[in-house]
Amino acid sequence: MSKNPPNYISTTNACKLCTPLGACLAFKGIEGAVPYLHGSQGCATYMRRYIIGHYNEPIDIASSSLSEKNAIYGGGPNLKMGLVNVTQKYQPKLIGIATTCMTETIGNDVGRYLHEFQRETVGTMPIMVRVATPSYNGTHMKGFHAAVTAVVEQLAKGREAVQEKINLLPGFISPADKRYFSEVIDDFGLDATILPDLSDTMGRATSKYDKIQPGGTPLASIATMGRASATIEFGRTLNGKTARLYWSAIWVRLPARSCKSMG
Ligand code: SF4
Questions:
Q1: DSSP per-residue codes, 151-213
Q2: Whose CA is nearest to atom 5 of ligand 1?
Q3: In the structure, which protein residues have their CB atom closer than 6 angstroms to any atom of ligand 1?
Q4: All structural domains of the chain
Q5: Backbone dihedral region for residue 159 (phi beyond 0: left; psi -120 to 50: alpha; all else: beta)
């Protein structure tokens, strides 16, 4: 070993963050949405701390708060109780549910729990979107894109291109870059649904605390995404997965404008 070690600190995979963290950010870019983790409280606390540090403003991430007991007997009752609590406290329009390492490892059937829950609470709950995000499966980027795909799969209606409108899936960009995209779209005179849209829900801290910040991609626009004339998806490594849900997809193999990376 050298007597004079180099004067730096080595960091391995600094940007490889947890997968549901990315999903929570994607959900945060939707109108009236609350991100909800089906897992233990520590995961939600870690993600809140990291996102607050990055964006310099508060973010609420709900949790089903599972304990050791739930790891053995299942997390269904906690998931349902948490959804009721979040609905009462936030009155959200959408709850975006992402799983954690623990719930994926024990094999919680979130789809079945939600199916049961929707039957038990007909008409009284907000829209719910679920995405499977085991963190050992990838990074925060993978979770982000999986959540965007889940939102489109579960909420967009129709397949025929009948609208003079396009979809833009900009990928993981900063709020400032999304504002720039909006300017470009306006310059071209286009009408576009940009999913997600963090330009008002994050990156604009004000002195007033809102439980749910105004802004985000409108749910009504997401519902019509299946009928857009074209879908443009940005990202080198995505293979146009979400855009290919539509026959009208245009897959753009270009990175979005560079933005401050999260790490
Ligand atoms: S346990 Fe998994 S889901 Fe929870 S914070 Fe760690 S990496 Fe993320």
A1: HHHHH----S--SS-EEEE--S--HHHHHHHHHHHHHTT--EEESS--TTTSS---SS--SS-
A2: 43
A3: 18, 20, 39, 43, 46, 100-101, 135
A4: 19-155 (3.40.50.1980), 166-252 (3.40.50.1980)
A5: alpha
Tokens 């004000």 locate to 206
CB neighbourhood size of 86 (10 A): 22
Pairing of strands 62-63, 33-38: parallel
Measure CA 161 to chain center. Answer: 26
Structure-token pair, residue 145: 């894109």
Ligand 1 midpoint to CA 183 (Å) = 36
Burial (CB count within 10 angstroms: exposed 0-12, middle 13-18, buried 19+), residue 47: buried
Half-sphere exposure for 190 (CA within 13 Å, toward CB): 19
Nearest alpha-carbon partner for 26 in 74, 91, 96: 96
Give the pTM.
Answer: 0.87
Ordered per-residue pLDDT tens for the chain, 263 residues: 567 777 777 766 666 789 999 999 999 999 999 999 999 999 999 999 999 988 888 899 999 999 999 988 889 999 999 999 999 999 999 999 999 999 999 999 999 999 999 999 998 999 999 999 999 988 999 999 999 999 999 999 876 667 688 999 999 999 999 999 999 999 999 999 999 999 999 877 778 888 899 999 999 999 999 888 888 888 766 666 676 666 555 555 444 444 344 43
Yes or no: say if 221 and 168 are a contact pair by the CB < 8 Å rule. Answer: no
